[in-house]
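Mods, move this if it's the wrong board.
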Amino acid sequence: MSSSLRTDGRRPDQLRSIRFEANIAPHATGSVLVSFGDTRVICAATIEPNVPTWMKQQGIKGGWLTAEYSMLPYSTLDRKPRDISKGKLDGRTVEIQRLIGRALRAVIDLQKLGQNTLWIDCDVLQADGGTRTASITGAYLAARLAVQKLIDARRIPENPLSDSVAAVSVGIYEGRELLDLPYVEDRDAEVDFNVVMTGQGRYVEVQGSGEESTFTHEQLLSLLALAKTGLKEIASLQTAFLMKELLKSG
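Not the wrong board. Structure tokens:
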């Protein structure tokens, strides 16, 4: 891998600056503003003391977790119309919110959630590549903060989250394997991957494709290794953030 610096001054294997700010949405049960460089997403988790009708009809016990995702009109250089103005969700929005939901459900025991629905809302304030990976990373933190409030209020006896979960992008841009791509790299990448992984290093989902290009088996393994290195660092940042925030509430 070439060690020359990227346009933003990072090494090929270096994450953007990642920051978390808690309680950004006071009316949510738990909320976090997550920043991956210039990409900023508000992730909010809200507990609803009810479950979907289909669960009741099928007699399914436990709770449910679902996610919604949106890009605010001013999050991109050119104004992005709201989905409601078009009368339907676009395909990309549906794909991403389903991905966020799958990622969080992979690390939660819905039986332990009780008869509650955990709503995850991810709203992109500013987009500079990696909005879905930032959303997943912040959504876990918002969910963990929300769950703690349920535990403290004795609405559930224990933490239903079995592990953390985070996501990061990797890709090949101008022939180099890069970690955590901003928009300028993501837009023109020859190969683009999004990798979702638990804190224990287990894969939840890998999305990848050649953009008018192909990649070898060796490149695939190298990109996954690059993503795993980045995700290990992100998991550490998540842990440090939660230790600080949960200590405040405790």
